[in-house]
Amino acid sequence: MGYNISIVLDERRIKENGKYPVKLRVYNKFTKKVKRYSLDIDLTTKEFETIWINPENKNLRGSNNEMRLKLQSIETRANNEAKEMTAFDFSKFETKLFRKSSDKNNVQYHFNLVIQKNTKNDKIGTAESYKYTLNSLAKFSQDQNNCPINKLTFDAITIDWLNDYQKFMIAKGKSYTTIAIYTRTLRVIFNNAIEANDISKDIYPFGKNKYKIPRTKKVKKALNSLQLKKLFEAEVLNDNEKQAKDFWFFSYACNGMNLKDIALLKYSDIKNDSFSYYRAKTFDKTAEKTTITIYLTDFTKRIILEYGNNNKNGYVFNIVTQKDDSAIQYKKIKNFTRYINDHIKRIANRNDLPNDLSTYWARHSFATNSLRKGASMEFISEALNHSDLSVTKNYFAGFEDEAKKEFANSLLDF
């Protein structure tokens, strides 16, 4: 046992009421660190000795007896919470100790823990995705089971509950992809609660012979070379459409660079005819940070020259500013992406191109057209900053049949 827990009277400073604060003293034997937690209880030295120090005094009556029972309850709970931890940690101990006893089995509580953690770590997009899932679960729980989300417990989420949730989502017109995203997020919350020893593994509703999260085949969003040519040469009706098309092709020409990474690109990243950056989406997911280098072309140089900030000390493009915190950055990048997608769709609709064309297509279009032009899988994997070649191969799942048809038709093209 790497800790010691006790109830003490903090006599370092007397309060105005002539009493001292009673505190929970916790000592970590490994770090030799001591913390005292206020219990909002004040006693005189004599009261404390009577109620707590003299355990042989079993004849306490009234308020004194109630106070002893209250302190015993606090000490017992503190010991139980510490005992459940594999290794004693003050931060986790504090979280567990000062929450309501019902929180350990509460779904919303565990969602909020993850949301708060990601928000604190500037992972605004991840925090938002957990909020979306929680809102969806809340609607189902209220509408179908008349259970408000703050009352939803883990043991209520059974295999049948999840199957009913899936039917509910389908009836609302949601896709299996959305259902898969939300139920995977819920599964993470279940695993977090189990790891924290807040719930039993026995109630885990996912896996073999239990609820199966829908497996969906990703629809690959890529333009072929003829479609890319048509989009590149398409007439634009205003400056908004021109900017949308320019940034779409800037992403495409920069190895399918994500719009967030474009927004966060700095002039200091540019050296001669290339720039280097770390991909924001995967930066915190890998211990080894891989730099991506993009070589500039006449086209990408023109985009930087035309849309770049005059001040060369900060970001290249006027999408976010140095003063923005992570929440404002997230909002601005999301709005800019929506703006680009809205206007690129207008161009697509007038030119008989896919009506759901978006910035997402630029990355896949770069990858598939690189493959068709003879680039190796290894080259594309590095360009896309994939962690493993198998990820890249999976990325192309669904294009094989089209590629085979093209190959078959080309056999007699002597």
Automatic annotation (TrEMBL):
Q: Would you tell me the protein name for this molecule?
A: Site-specific integrase
Q: Which UniProt keywords apply?
A: Coiled coil, DNA integration, DNA recombination, DNA-binding
Annotated coiled-coil positions are 57-84
**Top-level taxon in the UniProt lineage:** Bacteria
Where in this chain does the record put each Core-binding (CB) domain?
A: 101-194
The family line of this record is: Belongs to the 'phage' integrase family.
Query: Is DNA-binding there in the keyword field?
Result: yes
| Keyword DNA-binding included in the entry's annotation | yes
- Domain annotation Tyr recombinase: ranges: 218-408
